[in-house]
Amino acid sequence: MAARNAGTARPGGPNRTCQFKLVLLGESAVGKSSLVLRFVKGQFHEYQESTIGAAFLTQTVCLDDATIKFEIWDTAGQERYHSLAPMYYRGAQAAIVVYDITNQESFQKAKNWVKELQRQASPNIVMALAGNKADVANKRTVEYEEANAYAEDNALLFMETSAKTSMNVNDIFMAIAKKLPIGPAQGEPTGTVDMNQPQQQQKGSCCK
Amino acid sequence: MLPYMAYRYVKNKREKNQREMDSDLDSMVRSIVPDKTVICVPNVAAKLGEDSKEYIPGTLSIVEKSSGVFIEWKPSEDAETSWVMTSDDGNTEMVHARSPEEKQKCGARVAFSMDVNDLSSFRNDEPKRDSGSGGFPSIRLICRDGSSQVPLFFKNTTTAEFLDRLQGYITLRRSHRDSHLVIVVDQKSEALAKSVSMLDENGDILSRFMQNPYMTAMTGFSKITSFVQDQVIPSVLNDTDAVTQEEKIRLMRELRLAEEQMRVHSDAAGEFEVVTQLELPPRPEIYRELPVSKDLWNSFKLSNGSYDPMKLHHLKMNVFRGGLNAELRKEAWKCLLGYRQWHESDTDFQTRRAELAKQYENMKKQWMSVTEDQEKRFTKFVKRKSLVEKDVARTDRTVPFFQGDDNVNLVHLHNVLMTYVMYNFDLGYVQGMSDFASPLLFVMKDEVDTFWCFVGLMELTQKNFETDQAFIKLQMNQLRDLVMIINPKLANYLESEKSDDMYFCFRWVLVWFKREFSFLDTCKLWEVLWSGQPCPRFLLLICVAILDSQTNIIIDNQFGLTEILKHINDLSMHLKVDEILTAAEAIFHQLSASQNKLPAHICQYLNIGESAVSSSNNSPSKSDPDRVDL
Questions:
Q1: Which candidate from A10, A57, A81 shows the least CB-CB separation from B27?
Q2: Closest chain B residue to the Cα of A78, Cα to Cα
Q3: Which residue numbers delimit the Rab-GAP TBC domain (chain B) (predicted)?
Q4: Residue ranges of the domains in chain A?
């Protein structure tokens, strides 16, 4: 929680607010929605209902030199709804691919998502691999070393997380925020953003 | 303290340039300033859902912090405070049934702190002071990202003082078209509006049109009004709330160019009128009836327990108009879902049910007897079993019937779904099916009856779950077509925001609004749909009715693709089922009265007009035409 309130926006200073689209992908019931709920609202529900279609939440985090606003798309995980996923990851600047450390098959599915994103998503997408349910390590079937090696081979951020205990939840979003391109550190943004127009989806970062 | 900290800060950063030092120092000073509560309104209660009569007492505040100004609501910290239930006469009763832990959990769930700059608009309802229903003033805050906070009810005061204080930080303006909707004005657009108003004073007809479209059209464009409105002026321009100032300038220029083209065209054609937009008749006023009682239901029966085929349509219309008394559902749902045939006598049904019970037990044994060794070679089965287990554990766990860790009802739900996997192995289990099964179990309280009702319900809905999602896509397209006819302004707006694929309605359509209404309201909505009246695809008219009611919020807030999805998802538990049903029925009558002008494909799937198949003379057979593709 402390990380979320770290720093203070300074009006007129070099601080900027940048908005990024982030999508969560992964097998059904690995805890995608629970991760988002923990990050955005600080809550955990033992019996979080399955996601139908997609859900959308926003959360802002502060870095030293910028404020990052995440537009978070939480998706349905079952294979049957796979065809909907491109609608949600198209144009995303970041993705968290989630698996359950107690479920080897979900790790295989996560690898498939990584491959799909590498083929079809934005080329510069920042990807993180999240091994969730780290609080039930006694039922572990996916070893940390195996997942870490896979992440290194594919240039992914990697953390084992627990939405239940909140372990590494803020950290994985912060790690993504630090890796996202903020743009040149200049006193004033070039040009002006027309505040009368609705916010447009852009592939690159958007500073205002 | 402060001077010393400032001194140390400067000493450590003396190499930095002056401007940077100044801004950093300012930040440090501001971070030391304590939060200041500008206003704190006690006895402001949050309402969890539309059907709920329970309010969570709390306090609503505006707080100035170092990082900005925030609107905050927190539940009352007094552990002894009970939840308040309002009676019809406006008196309040105290509720003591919930445990303190449960109250705390629910309160924390709806508590919020939002930056005042994230506020886009809000709904402000002030019931008439002396009205007999004794409603409370309420506010519902709508954020720029499309999300909404829960409705807040002011128990002891009006909203006026809170809003007065709020206007110290933001500028508010009431929507021109919805007096309950208050819009936060963007500062930049207000300044620009002053300069644009100078342009409006040139007095030419196009400027006057933009000021007062109706009057100018009546006097200057009477024969080509529809053409002008539809073809020349984007629909968004007809509503002043939605027109930004830059957009106004740009469109005025385009309009002058278009006028030249239009004049040439009308000269060449002589008297010229184009009707490109369907004008629908006004909506009739619709009333909901009381639920069908057991006595009324029984009056449609013959002596042997079967239903009089001559009265069947009337019975279904009664169910459509009012739903069913809860005590009647166990019996009536069997008929509405085709588990019991309308023409079956009591004796015949009992005989057949005994046979169906055997079939159920046999199929149940099939999956229960699969051994661990067999599972190793039966991968599809294992995957489906795993999916069922995961979803049963998280289906309707907030409904008392399914609460608790050792709840036998979860076992029954699991058994029904697993047996369906065996019954329909080609389809298997797909997420969303547990949402359809749980109300059936709640009503039937018996695995056999639940299972066969579920079979009937899946006959109505299983196309939603097919792999290629083709039926979902078809419904999204049909929904878009309907919105284009009923509410072209909204349809054009959605297209301009790249939302006209309608996928923000996916959840509504996939599970027939199961996630949008309370459990009991879902039961009511579904039996209305199962009646098959007044037309197939009535589900889509319900979607249109809701979207129609949200038009002003979506357009006035200038919601984009993501905000629209967020707003629609946040309507969950805040929709009034009777209001929506009456609006949808009124829309049906509008369309029916315009059948001569409707596109043929819409007449076809709504069963309107020449292509309509008569539904009043049902032959008592297993294939009930009313139940086809609801």
A1: A10
A2: B431
A3: 323-533
A4: 16-179
* Rounded mean pLDDT, A126-139: 94
Q: Three-state SS for B47? A: strand
For an interface test with A, the pick among B390, B475, B543 (most A C-beta atoms closer than 10 Å) comes out as B390
- B451-498: pLDDT as tens digits: 999 999 998 998 899 888 899 989 999 998 999 899 998 998 998 998
Q: How far is it, in rounded angstroms, from Cα A92 to Cα A82?
A: 17
Q: Which helix (H) or strand (E) holds B8?
A: helix B2-12
Measured in angstroms, the CA of B286 and the nearest CA of chain A are apart by 32
Q: What one-character DSSP code corresponds to residue B522?
A: H
- Indicate if the pLDDT at residue B326 is higher than 60: yes
Mutation for B interface: A58, A60, A65, A79, most B CBs within 10 A: A58
* Secondary structure (DSSP) of B438-481: HHHHHHH-SHHHHHHHHHHHHHHHGGGG-TT-HHHHHHHHHHHH
pLDDT of residue A7: 38
User: What residues in A contact B244, CB-CB < 8 Å?
Assistant: 196-197
Query: Could you count the other beta carbons within 10 Å of the beta carbon of residue B490?
Result: 20
Residues of A in contact with B27 (CB under 8 A): 8, 10, 13
Domains parsed from chain B with CATH numbers: 35-185 (2.30.29.230), 189-267 (no CATH), 272-320+468-630 (1.10.472.80), 325-465 (1.10.8.270)
Tell me the CATH number for domain A16-179: 3.40.50.300
